[in-house]
Design brief:
The chain is of the alpha/beta class and 291 residues long. The protein has a single domain, classed as TIM Barrel (Alpha-Beta Barrel), CATH 3.20.20. Helix content is 48%, strand content 15%. It has 11 helices and 8 strands. Strand 1, helix 2 and strand 2 form a beta-alpha-beta unit. The longest helix has 21 residues. It is globular. The protein starts with a helix and ends with a helix.
């Protein structure tokens, strides 16, 4: 099913994001996790990322195809500019079409480890920006295209206005929905949505939710993407840092409150960054759906 159609049903769209495994055993574990979440929560769709620097290209295609064919769940493939020429991307798009994948998240992607100094560098014959990839895909295939957006601003943006300008360009080039970078303060999301609507952006803007299960891990993620952890939550996590169970409980409690307030405020759905684990996501979405 096409994701734009899901958003046209007049009810929240719930989705999960996974990353492709590195091994055959990892693939088996991932499919079991996806099946567990599918059986328990019946997400509207799931997405599968590329690895760092696009390093899991083929495995992403394999996993997203298996999820849709074997589990019967609508799947979305991530596609990035990293390390790919226009011809490479065209070949990948054709493989997705042949596999029955109708939904693609078009991203620039992060440069391979060790190559990030000096900014992103496209390969000869490739693309430098997600807007270019979006335009390329929308001009030749009938994917429902999604894009990323950043409530707290992209780290490389010159200003909030510049960041919003390029978000608007994504919509103009063919994006039909946006998924936000992780954030923990709902005020950042609602302020961004208000600015986006004032700028003429009309597509659904879906909050990206990352359950906190590990303090060091979330501190690393937020440093990489520029997101902030609210002072009160940061204090709770520091006090519980040496107790994994308490960290998990604090993270789940915060996410449940966050998700409830987002939906009450009109968010069109929730997209969970699962980190390939089911417990936290199951706990959060089950609690939210009880409302």
């Amino acid at each position: 099913m096409r994701i734009a159609e899901l958003h046209g049903r007049g009810k929240p769209v719930f989705s999960f994001e996974f990353f492709p495994p590195k091994t055959a055993d990892g693939a088996h574990t991932l499919m079991a996790t996806v099946a567990d979440l599918e059986d328990a929560l019946q997400p509207d769709f799931v997405s599968v990322t590329y690895g760092a620097g696009g390093s899991t290209h083929d495995r992403t295609l394999d996993v997203v195809t298996r999820i849709q064919k074997e589990l019967g769940t609508t799947a979305m493939a991530h596609l990035t500019c990293v390390g790919s020429t226009e011809a490479d991307l065209a070949q990948t798009a054709e493989r997705l079409v042949a596999a029955g994948i109708e939904n693609v998240l078009a991203l620039r992607g992060d440069p391979p480890k060790g190559e990030g100094e000096g900014g992103f560098r496209k390969v000869p014959g490739g693309f430098e920006h997600a807007t270019e990839l979006t335009e390329f895909l929308s001009s030749r295939w009938r994917f429902d295209l999604g894009g990323a957006c950043y409530p707290e601003g992209h780290l490389e943006s010159k200003s909030p206005a510049d960041d919003l300008h390029w978000t608007k360009v994504k919509e103009e080039k063919g994006v039909k929905f946006l998924i936000t970078q992780l954030f923990f303060d709902n005020q950042d999301y609602f302020a961004f949505v208000a600015r986006a609507r004032a700028a003429g952006i009309t597509v659904p803007i879906v909050p990206g939710i990352m359950p906190i299960t590990n303090v060091a891990q979330i501190e690393r993620f937020t440093k990489m993407c520029g997101a902030k952890i609210p002072h009160e939550l940061a204090g709770r996590l520091r006090r519980a840092a040496n107790d994994p169970a308490h960290v998990m409980a604090a993270g789940i409690e915060h996410a449940i409150k966050q998700c409830r307030k987002l939906l009450e405020g009109g968010a069109p759905g929730l997209h969970f960054y699962t980190l390939n684990k089911s417990f936290a996501t199951r706990s959060i979405l089950a609690a939210v759906r009880k409302e």
